[in-house]
Amino acid sequence: METARPPAPAIDDEDLRVLQLIAQGLPLDVVGRRMDMSERTVRRRTRAVCDRIGVATPIEAVVWAAHRGLL
């Protein structure tokens, strides 16, 4: 018997764009400039995404999204 996976937490397009830029190895201040937001906002958003999907670091969030075909 196969166990059903719980639905993936919602990640919006802006969150995905932040993860894409992090995946490119860009520092958070550069991510902020590219997204027209402060570095502090990028940090907060990234932390919120990590909390929502249950990972500890932005790199883990990138891997999580990549494994789900989101990046």
TrEMBL record:
Q: Which residues cross the membrane?
A: none
Keyword Transmembrane in record? no
Q: Name one GO biological process term.
A: regulation of DNA-templated transcription
Per the database record, which ranges form the HTH luxR-type domain?
8-65
Which molecular-function annotations from GO does this UniProt entry contain? Answer: DNA binding
Taxonomy, superkingdom? Bacteria
Q: What is this protein called?
A: DNA-binding NarL/FixJ family response regulator
**Organism annotation:** Jiangella mangrovi
